[in-house]
Design brief:
This protein is mainly α and 198 residues long. 45% of the residues lie in helices and 10% in strands. It has seven helices and five strands; from the N terminus they run αββαααβαββαα. The strands form two sheets. A three-stranded antiparallel sheet has the order 3-5-4. The chain has a two-stranded antiparallel sheet with strand order 1-2.
């Protein structure tokens, strides 16, 4: 049951974006809110941006009204699933010693947890040197956040990359990141290592 159906105070709002399901350059989002908030939210929108992308909004509205949106979503789910599977297979074949990649049932990215800030920084730096963009998990944590102390890891997006490019990138990472033997030796010495630039 949707959360809004349980909301007797009419305070639930749903915010989303078309950027991920269409294309990032669209930069078009939406907000579904209770009717009594519509006027205030419209005023807030007017004050924040006086010239919204009217043409983009009209085209997107027509795209939905003409019945193209749902078939597009079904198609993109298949594409994303294939890319996810390519990443999972390639990672588990070549880089499972770096960290365990969890099963991904939804979403457009996956996080591989690491054990230390030093390891995270080193792996991300070597990936960027090879023109492979990886977001460090620690960059998304608030300073002095409480709770889970292990906030180091690699955020790997797969939705906007072809299956072949995913496999190629993983193989390039295998060439520049430490081997399983190097990882074991590094843990024994108390510090991570990398092979060098590809």
């Amino acid at each position: 049951m949707p959360l809004a159906a349980l909301d007797e105070s009419h305070r639930v709002m749903y915010i989303g974006s078309f950027s991920k399901v269409m294309y990032p350059g669209l930069r078009l989002g939406y907000l579904i809110a209770p009717p009594q908030l519509a006027d205030k939210l419209t005023l807030l929108r007017t004050l924040s941006t006086r010239q919204p992308p009217m043409n983009d909004q009209r085209v997107m509205a027509d795209f939905i009204a003409e019945g193209h949106f749902q078939p597009h979503i079904r198609k993109m789910r298949k594409v994303s699933r294939a890319r996810r599977d390519a990443l999972l297979t390639a990672w588990r074949t070549h880089l499972s010693h770096i960290g365990e990649m969890p099963e991904v049932s939804s979403g457009l990215q996956v996080t591989v947890r690491l054990t230390s800030a030093e390891q995270e920084q080193l792996l991300v730096a070597h990936a960027l040197a090879a023109n492979i963009e990886i977001t460090p998990l620690s960059s998304l944590w608030l300073p002095h956040a409480t709770g889970d102390d292990n906030h180091y890891g690699l955020i790997l997006g797969f939705a906007g990359i072809s299956e072949n490019d995913i496999v190629t990138a993983v193989r390039r990472l295998k060439a520049i990141w430490p081997s399983e033997e190097q990882m074991i030796a590094a843990r024994q010495r108390g510090r991570p290592t990398c092979r060098g630039k590809a």
